[in-house]
Input
Amino acid sequence: MNEKKVTNPALEVSDMQAYQDVAGEVAVEDARVSCRDVRVYYGDKQALFGINLDLGSNAVTALIGPSGCGKSTFLRCINRMNDTIPNCRVEGNIRLDNQDINDPNSDVVELRARVGMVFQKPNPFPKSIYDNVAYGPRIHALAESKDHLDSIVETALKKAGLWKEVADRLNSPGTGLSGGQQQRLCIARAISVQPEVILMDEPCSALDPIATARIEELIDELSENFTIAIVTHSMQQAARVSQRTAYFHLGNLIEVGDTEQIFTNPQQQLTEDYITGRFG
Amino acid sequence: MTGVVLALAAVSFLLVTIFSSGYSAFWRTEIALTIEFDPKLMKVEPDATFDQLQQVNYLALFRKNLERAFPEVTARADRRELAQMFSESAPDLLREMVLADPGLVGARQVVSVLASSSVDMITKGNAPRDIDEARRVISDQQLRWLDRFDESGLLGSRFNSDFFTSGPSRSPELAGLGGAIAGSALLLLVTLLLSFPVGVAAAVYLEEYAPQNRLSEIIEVNINNLAAVPSIIFGLLGLAVVLNFFGLPRGTPLVGGIVLSLMTLPTIIIASRAALKAVPPSIRDGALAMGASPMQVMFHHVLPLAMPGMLTGTIIGLAQALGETAPLLMIGMFAFVADIPGSILDQASALPVQIYLWAESSERGYVELTAAAIMVILVFLVAMNLLAVLLRKKFERRW
Amino acid sequence: MTVYLVTAVLLFSFGGFFSARRKAHALRASGPIHSLPQYHGIRVALWCAVPALLILLAWTAFEPRVIELLVRSYLPPEFANLSEAEANLVMMEIRSLAAGTFGISSDQAYVEDAAEVFRSFQKISDYAMTVSVMSFAIVALLWARTGVLRRYRARQSVERSFNVFIFLSSLIAILTTFAIVLSLLFESFKFFELVPLTDFLFGLDWNPQIAIREDQGASSGAFGAIPVFAGTFLIALVAMLVAGPIGLASAIYFAEYAHPQVRNFAKPALELLAGIPTVVYGFFAALTVAPLVRDLGIAIGLEVQARSALAAGVVMGVMIIPFISSLADDVINAVPESLREGSYAMGATQSETIKQVIIPAALPGIVGAFLLAISRAIGETMIVAMAAGLNANLTANPLENVTTVTVQIVVALIGDQEFDDPKTLSAFALGLALFVITLILNVIALTIVKRYREQYE
Output
């Protein structure tokens, strides 16, 4: 068993470098997002070394790995949030529905309307609950009338499982909600513009276990309609919500495969060390 | 501890000095005189027209009435001394009364006439009374008359509302701050309109947009240095560039406002940048991830949240600008302008400049006016600072 | 005239906004469009207003010069023989005549004619300006409106304008510095053409009023800046002797000893002190402190002049106390808690800790604060203008009166300004020297403070 597993001593030290030997199949049949040779640089420092990975339609892909392994950086490539970081440079080819998202002619605003994002810390706008959810439809001119906007907001809140709790106080500030409610509000905000893909960057790390359970249920429901990529530190969470799991280590994708297989029979020594808690 | 006490003692001493020498300027001494609007003295018919009434020599009317009231004063010099106890404005007062109510012609009425500055000082105790005649501001004879007025209850005192409405004057008892207040208001308006949008825009650029390169660094260093450049240098800049090079009209609130804006800009930029920094990046990320463009992120989220901080900085900057004197002197805002300025292209004065001019003038009657003007400017400053503090308290947020 | 034109352009611009927005709304009704209608509206409004207003601005800026040149070419040859000052006077007369100022008339016929020419040029210019500004606004509006198309990226276009605007705004700081340096240098050069640089830098006699040598002409005097600078530094020294210890002591008190309640009350009070206009301090110095110092001096048998350096310096010191106090307070607060705790752990008392640990640790920052305060004292104008002397006097005795750089600038520029007279120009040479000195002090101070901050971050 041990011989089969590949070890690469160079990756044990903190020096980042390219590591090409990925275990598992990176491509999937019905890929919504497909990334090839994605490299990210912060100034002179390279943070991602040629990542190849597909996100399947209406499936949840979990990205796991120790802190600083580049999984969040990778996630932020998919909606070009890395553009906002000075000195950050993204190379490689990322296609959404077979369209190059880094095409200089494409409008990043349209991309972000199609690829929603939920952040680690709930970050509702300091506005009313209604305005939080209505913001996206407003700036993208999705609603034809006030009634239409109302119904978009209601649908999004219902899908995020928040409608019952907030229906009677849509005009109170979103920042007044509890942590878990705030995060569901952020999810409602993200789905209000009918994105194709939702990126979640450790969405439960700031929440208590009960709120986390609610969000996990929600992710499961949402995966019927949306393509979801979730970065998580919790291996149990990855196992519970995702169909596919990708393991990142020091800027490299080490292994990708069905979640069950990754957690029961990892192909790489590094993956096994991580999921058995030997480091990370 | 001693340091603080010394410093606070200095402030208290300053404030007490100013207050004690200035509060009296808000009241004016008046002397009640019975004036007979005798048509014969006015050299008009009792049913004279408005135009004819305008032509009347009211100075003569006033003098003759004085002579009637004091028949025992006959010598020319004595009569002059007596007339000098009243403000020069007495004839104007009579004219206004008659023009407002032509029915007064032929009537007899008790009129409260403003006392001259010297009499005013003696009554208020601002000038010593029991000293040698040579050093006293009024003569022994005037003092005796004054005591007589006092005994017969003719002396009165009235709230000096003219102080806030009339312009500067060569006679201290008539001088007011109205022109200076209007000038300062126009100055601040120009300063606000120029420096607030530009300051906020510059702060937004430097904080949110500027790439990290040499140019941005130079801009930053420049702003920090500009904040410490002596104000008089900005005055020289205004003189050489705004007046001589661009040829804008001298001594106007427009020019003063431009110069003060350049001075206030660093304050506003620094405060606005701090306010922008305080807006958590997670809000920007959230909005960007929703597909908002950078400008939408600014206008929909960041600016509304940073606005209280920016306004606080702006108010503090304007408060500094309100007290600034030296640059205004350089660009000629010290002219003696009796009219109250109505537009930013009129010659005008400003509160601190008026304080300087009054403080420098040799007539003693201006001392209380200076102190009173200082009280007015301090009230404005305290109000502005309070507003800034309240704004900061009200919108203080923690995320 | 200009006001009406600006109003008209703005009205057109508003109209353009609504018309473009309506067109975009109509487009959206039949299918998705790239940009929100309001961005189409803003874009058209900007196109309509900005170029037209820029033309208007440029026109009003250059019109007087161009007209003057044209009018001069119409003037008879005797005009060319006039000196520059006389020529300017004639031009001023022509302008007033043309403006129809009441009570102005000229005895010279050619002046009247020139005024007529001036007036006709002005009329032509006004017409031309109105026509060109309005036609530009209309053409730009119509052209921009054709851009209201389904795929047109109006938002990006508006955003680019916004980016240009904020970038230009941030450049104003640099432009201001440039303008300061250039204007000071330019006028100073004119001054040094009249007065040799060495006389200015090393001369011991400053007396801009009186002619000392016949061949220098009636208006020139002595321009040796040493006594002026000596006076400036003397007053700044007195001020620092007052403000340094008191400011530092109160900063230490606030940072280390003060009960929060006392701090909450006393700190704003000190800041209020910082907000008092300097003209108020000047009045205070002249009215109260100067006589007080004089009486005290006489009481102990010293001869004190009425406008003594001591009185001005003391009041300036009071003005600077809050400045030093708040800067030093920040600096002391930046000393890490660990240093304090380390010292207490060794059994040191609070005053030992302050003297032997905190002050040495904060020293660079305190020095920086003092340098900034000195720079401020040197550049302060109103206190010295009202309480210090007007005549240069080379002395180190604070009981005598001395003058300062800023006072001499004020004296030179209040009253008649003539830009070919060394007295007026001397203000700019002094200003240049003042600017350089304060700039050096500021740069050193800011660098020290910045390094100090970084050290503890």
Q: What stands out?
A: The first helix of chain C runs from residue 2 to 29. Residues 210-214 of chain C have pLDDT under 50 and may be disordered. Strands of chain C lie at 206-207, 222-223. The domain at 222-455 of chain C is CATH 1.10.3720.10 (MetI-like fold).
